Automatic annotation (TrEMBL):
The NADH:quinone oxidoreductase/Mrp antiporter transmembrane domain, residue ranges: 154-459
Similarity comment text for this entry: Belongs to the complex I subunit 2 family.
Predominant localisation class: membrane
The EC number(s) this enzyme carries: 7.1.1.-
Membrane topology summary: Multi-pass membrane protein
Protein name: NADH-quinone oxidoreductase subunit N
Alphabetically ordered keywords of this record: Cell membrane, Membrane, NAD, Oxidoreductase, Quinone, Translocase, Transmembrane, Transmembrane helix, Transport
Catalytic reactions on record: a quinone + NADH + 5 H(+)(in) = a quinol + NAD(+) + 4 H(+)(out)
Subunit structure: NDH-1 is composed of 14 different subunits. Subunits NuoA, H, J, K, L, M, N constitute the membrane sector of the complex.
Role, per record: NDH-1 shuttles electrons from NADH, via FMN and iron-sulfur (Fe-S) centers, to quinones in the respiratory chain. The immediate electron acceptor for the enzyme in this species is believed to be a menaquinone. Couples the redox reaction to proton translocation (for every two electrons transferred, four hydrogen ions are translocated across the cytoplasmic membrane), and thus conserves the redox energy in a proton gradient.
Length: 532
């Protein structure tokens, strides 16, 4: 429909995203015009200020948004309780990841001196000796975070696709900027880019099919067409096969971003090859954003076809939990193991998606936030374990033998994070698993929960194996364990992760009470207060 009426835009409700966007544009100008010696402090200060300001604005909006939520820009963006929660979580996790990104040891950060130089070439060596650094990392992080924020709040498929690309393109670049093992880092970036391009193609084709069925891209209008049996060319019915194929292809794109089986193959290679601070950002913020978008799409646009897509999610969730748990047992690299761990946890969250109700949404929201803090803390520890003084990170698990004796605080923090991943009581991981499994049981998905519990037992084996390795194994004489001194930024990231893991495990009530609709609250449009 063509209209001459300009859209009504509430800039206050868009302020968090506009703040991050404005900071990203300003960061590009700083990169272009600021003196080289002043770029890093300017970029770091600008990025930190933008993330903090956006989070404050998000918190302030909680009281000004109607209980039923609202939509902006002709329905393209939704602002409601789930959107604000996901955006707040993304901003906090991005700020913690920024601590790891900004950390420097011996005058070096985690990023290549000159990404455009051929790895091992004289040009790269010259830039390294000259102390060159990639301050372009900061605007790229800002634009990636902007995409994450919009991804969770998108209320039509075109906005969702734009947010997907705004989030993904900076991450493709950031994955190839590791200072160490440059060829491996570049290989990871190429794999991520190619597989991401394929998934985006499936996703866009799925959007086209859904549009063909409904004649609309807005979630509310798609839902209305589903209720009516079709829209546009299929108003009389007969378009259900087109809709189901569209749902499947849209699901491919979203399940790729969360790393669910069989769309998970990019995760181990990318997590291992990317700079560890960027891996931490992806394993936390990107996962929250991807699930935020997936939940909104399947609960609002496709909510009335839950009986049609629920079997697909059942199969994907079971494959994700079982296959990733089994393969993780064989891993000998800590980052690859944590990548497969991320895949398993995606399967756990999918059990809440199967529930397709308010309890499932609340469980998924808590799980994602708790997992985000824990995984950033774990990757922060990974940045400190080195092959030798001034050397690269010690990814091979055998290098971690004896860490509990040489660095008891570091080993203790990692043990806490691993126990949370395993779902041990008094950690946030236990509460998160209990919340998603309880929602699945209430929805009748008991067999799925049984598979989840068994998968949890398998994952507990390889988490405990690392703890045993750190405390009860002697390091090889020719390969002693070495840890870098934790700087203030990395130490803060580990401390925040550990504190959140314990607090959310011991006293989760305040968070859960605000996620689960209270008795007497008016049900809002769709499951769990998503607005249309």
């Amino acid at each position: 429909m063509i209209t001459d009426t300009p859209p009504s835009i509430d800039y206050w409700l868009l302020a968090p995203m506009l703040t991050v966007f404005g900071a990203g544009v300003l960061a590009v100008l700083v990169e272009a015009f600021a003196p080289k010696a002043r770029r890093r402090p300017l970029q770091l200060g600008l990025t930190a200020a933008a993330l903090i300001a956006a989070f404050v604005l998000t918190v302030l909006q909680v009281g000004s948004v109607p209980a039923e939520g609202t939509t902006l820009a002709m329905g393209a963006v939704a602002v409601d309780r789930p959107a604000l929660f996901f955006q707040g979580a993304i901003l906090v996790l991005a700020a913690i990841a920024l601590l790891l990104i900004a950390e420097r040891r011996g005058g070096e950060d985690a990023f290549a001196a000159q990404a455009a130089a051929v790895p091992g070439s004289e040009e790269e060596r010259a830039h390294t000796l000259a102390g060159s650094e990639h301050t372009e990392v900061y605007p790229l992080v800002l634009f990636a975070v902007l995409g994450m924020l919009l991804f969770t709040a998108a209320n039509d498929f075109l906005t969702l696709f734009i947010a997907l690309e705004v989030m993904s393109l900076p991450l493709y670049l950031l994955c190839g900027l590791a200072r160490r093992r440059r060829l491996f880092s570049q290989e990871a970036a190429v794999k991520y880019f190619l597989l991401g391009a394929f998934s985006s193609a499936f996703f866009l084709f799925g959007i086209a099919l859904v549009y063909g069925f409904s004649g609309a891209v807005n979630y509310a209008e798609v839902a209305e067409a589903v209720q009516a049996g079709g829209g546009g060319a299929f108003e009389g019915g007969g378009g259900e096969p087109l809709l189901l194929l569209g749902i499947a292809l849209v699901g491919v794109g979203l399940l790729f971003k969360v790393g669910a089986v069989p769309f998970h193959n990019w995760k181990p290679d990318v997590y291992q090859g990317a700079p560890t601070p960027i891996t931490a950002l992806m394993a936390s913020g990107t996962l929250v954003a991807a699930f935020g978008a997936l939940l909104r799409v399947f609960f609002t646009a496709f909510g009335d076809t839950a009986e049609a897509w629920r079997p697909m999610i059942w199969v994907v969730a079971i494959l994700t939990m079982v296959l990733a748990a089994v393969v993780a047992v064989t891993q000998r690299d800590i980052k690859r193991l944590l990548a497969y761990s991320s895949v398993v946890h995606a399967g756990f969250v999918l059990t809440a998606v199967v529930a397709a109700d308010s309890a499932g949404l609340a469980g998924a929201m808590f799980y994602l936030a708790a997992y985000g803090f824990t995984t950033i803390g774990a990757f922060a520890v990974v940045t400190l374990v080195r092959t030798h003084e001034g050397g690269p990170e010690a990814g091979e698990l055998s290098r971690w033998a004896g860490l509990g004796r040489t660095s008891p605080l570091l080993a203790g923090a990692l043990s806490l994070f691993l126990l949370a991943f395993a779902g041990i009581p008094l950690t946030s991981g236990f509460i998160g698993k209990f919340a998603v499994f309880e929602a699945a049981v209430a929805a009748g998905a008991v067999p799925l929960v049984v598979v989840g519990v068994l998968s949890s037992a398998v994952t507990a084996f390889f988490y405990v194996r690392i703890i045993v390795l750190m405390y009860f194994s002697e390091p090889a004489a020719d390969r002693p364990v070495h840890t870098a001194r934790a700087g203030a930024l990395t130490g803060t990231a580990i401390g925040i992760g550990a504190a959140a893991t314990l607090v959310l495990g011991v006293y989760p009530t305040p968070v859960l009470d605000h996620l689960v609709p209270q008795p007497g609250e008016e049900a809002v449009a769709t499951a769990g207060a998503f607005t249309r």
